[in-house]
Amino acid sequence: MKYLLGAVDTVPLLLDGLVTTLLICGLASILALVGAVCIVAARRSGIGVVVWTAKVYVTLMRGLPIVILVFLLYFGVPALFDLGRVSALWVGVLALAMNGAAFQSEVLRGAIARLPNGQTEGAYALGLNKFQLWRLVLTPQVLPIALPALAGEIGFLIKASPVLSLITVVDLTRRAQQVTMQTFDPLGPLLAACFLYFLLIGSISWVSRYLETRLTVGRTR
Amino acid sequence: MTSSTPAGNKDIREVAISLDQVSKWYGSFQVLQNVNLNVRVGERIVIAGPSGSGKSTMIRCINWLEQHQSGRIVVDGIELTSNYRNVDAVRKEVGMVFQHFNLFPHLTILENCTLAPIWVKKQSKKDADAVAFEFLEKVRIADQAHKFPGQLSGGQQQRVAIARALCMRPKVLLFDEPTSALDPEMVREVLDTMVRLAEDGMTMLCVTHEMGFARQVADRVIFMDRGEILEENVPDEFFSKPRHERARAFLSQIIH
Ligand SMILES: Nc1ncnc2c1ncn2[C@@H]1O[C@H](COP(=O)(O)OP(=O)(O)OP(=O)(O)O)[C@@H](O)[C@H]1O
Ligand SMILES: [Mg+2]
């Protein structure tokens, strides 16, 4: 009970950490989605080298522990190119986005594969061009299929973000540790952080479910 | 023009589609072998032949869903080449109805019908809606306009697909086995719709094994096998005394 009260009391102390986590994960998710679309486009381009590069990228990202990627970007790359100190925050955004793009591209690919047959030829036969096909016919159908899994990927990304505390980013997790050190309370701040992570990830899946029903309203398959 | 056009007095009509020595390969397999075909404005042609004979491939070449590799295809005076402007121009003139309807499940019936007129022909939504209702009336399904395709029966969906194609006011309609994915009790309503289109003078190319339909509306039946057109004949003769032996074999199969 004492610990729970302590946890509630420490929530305000963690808010700046929460803001940092939100900022990094928000930006990274958006960049990841853009990257994922590019990867899917590359894999569908039919141009040998481009397809191959995209595949290799996805395989690498899926196999690489995210800590290693973060260290490579924060320590390795600046040393290699003599860049001096780089912003830990932006490295964090980039690392999560690079990783997320690979996973999200797989989600999109899977969703595209589940579209009903004949949509493309139906659209082309009506005279739509490729851009209109994607904008008006395929994407509106892909999104509701992909949404739950995309939300899951964003959840993973949030859960991976504490790794950035290893490179001096003061995110929610790091902030909780700091408060622990200041208050000598080993549990309260961590419980508070748990609560905030749950809230964050829970609200994302809630939003995705809401959007999913909005997007599929009225139609039966 | 081939000499086998049965109704010689129609020959003055202008040519809507002409295929001249058209060939196509999938790898080393030749799907189309020097296909020659002229379709005149207002003509109704039924294409028959065994499975895998290249019927779908041939009509899909006419709106460039498949690309031929040699020969010439000219639609309404526009030659199909890899020039995208020509392809777009041809697709505006040619509508297509598919075996599995290919309606857009995320759009209502009305939106299915207005999508292309709005985006391809740049019609206003109001005009497009008006045209869509006109054709939905014609296929007798206007009362379902605000439903989604998944809420309609197969026969209704196919009629919507026909209306959707008509909304672009095509000069030619291609049908690829429009009734073969339907439950038997729904075949009639789709065929009736097609007969009415034929009566209105629409130029039609139909891949179908519906012999009743062929007898009722077709000017010519084209028999294809192994990528070749083996026989062109008037329906009555084609069905009662086909000239080609493979056509006889084919007919004896589909009659039973
Ligand atoms: N994309 C493709 N790649 C390779 N072969 C193909 C492809 N599409 C079709 N074929 C082959 O080309 C031949 C002709 O196919 P097509 O679909 O035109 O036949 P069809 O006369 O319409 O047959 P069905 O009555 O079964 O619809 C078939 O042998 C088919 O296996
Ligand atoms: Mg076919």
TrEMBL record, chain A:
Please report the name of this protein according to its UniProt entry.
Amino acid ABC transporter permease
Which segments cross the bilayer? 20-42, 63-81, 87-104, 145-170, 190-211
Give the matching CDD domains. Answer: TM_PBP2
NCBIfam families per UniProt: HEQRo_perm_3TM
Q: Which PROSITE patterns match?
A: ABC_TM1
**Lipid bilayer topology:** Multi-pass membrane protein
Among SUPFAM superfamilies, the record links this protein to: MetI-like
An example Pfam family from this entry, by short name, is BPD_transp_1
Q: Which family does it belong to?
A: Belongs to the binding-protein-dependent transport system permease family. HisMQ subfamily.
Q: Where would you find this protein in the cell?
A: Cell inner membrane; Cell membrane
The alphabetical list of record keywords is: Amino-acid transport, Cell membrane, Membrane, Transmembrane, Transmembrane helix, Transport
Q: Which residues form a coiled coil?
A: none
Transport as a keyword of this entry, yes or no, is yes
The protein's matches in InterPro entries, at most eight in alphabetical order, are given as:
AA_ABC_transptr_permease_3TM, ArtM/GltK/GlnP/TcyL/YhdX-like, MetI-like, MetI-like_sf
Q: Which residues form the ABC transmembrane type-1 domain?
A: 18-208
Q: What is its main location?
A: membrane
TrEMBL record, chain B:
Looking at the record, the residues that make up the ABC transporter domain are 17-251
Instruction: Give the record's keywords alphabetically.
Output: ATP-binding, Nucleotide-binding, Transport
Q: Which PROSITE patterns match?
A: ABC_TRANSPORTER_1 (PS00211), ABC_TRANSPORTER_2 (PS50893)
Q: Which SUPFAM superfamilies is this protein grouped with?
A: P-loop containing nucleoside triphosphate hydrolases (SSF52540)
Q: Give the matching SMART domains.
A: AAA
Q: Which GO terms describe its molecular function?
A: ATP binding
What is any Pfam family matched here?
A: ABC_tran
The record, for Gene3D superfamilies, names: P-loop containing nucleotide triphosphate hydrolases
Source taxon at top rank = Bacteria
Presence of keyword Nucleotide-binding: yes
| Family of this protein | Belongs to the ABC transporter superfamily.
- Protein name as it appears in the record: Amino acid ABC transporter ATP-binding protein
